[in-house]
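Note to self: keep these together.
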Amino acid sequence: MDAILYGNGFNLLSKDCPSWQELLTNISDREKAPILNGIPPTLQYEQVYLAPNSSFSSLSEGEDETKLKEAVKRKLKVIRTNEFYEKLLNLGVSTFLTTNYDHALYNNLESSIINKNSAEKIYSIRRWKKVKLNNNEYTIFQFHGDITTVKSIMLGLDHCLALKKVDS
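Structure:
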């Protein structure tokens, strides 16, 4: 089976797609907890989430990152497809693996989804969806999460633990 792995580089070619820095800056408390440059993106996320003066650091014990992930979802759900996604779809491959959380590959058209396995609520080891576009069917694995299941979105270092969930 042939498959194509793609990531956020395709999104960055879309008009309204924020960079990682812009995404974090737009959802953080810029004045209270500015994002540090020169540290890895996963640590920048941890900074936004855990900074003592951040509105997200006030989450009570037992609360999770859902509030922050909802903010990420709002920023990413508006990303539309672009000509490069169309080129991907025309390569004759029907399976796509992606680190993207969004649905830009099929232009956010939920009506394109014809089948899916979304039984996992947090991890995305077995999560997939099948979409139909222009009479062709494609299977998409979003292994960093899906914006329709906010808890599945992997952003920080703690999400690296998802690799432990992979069956051998």
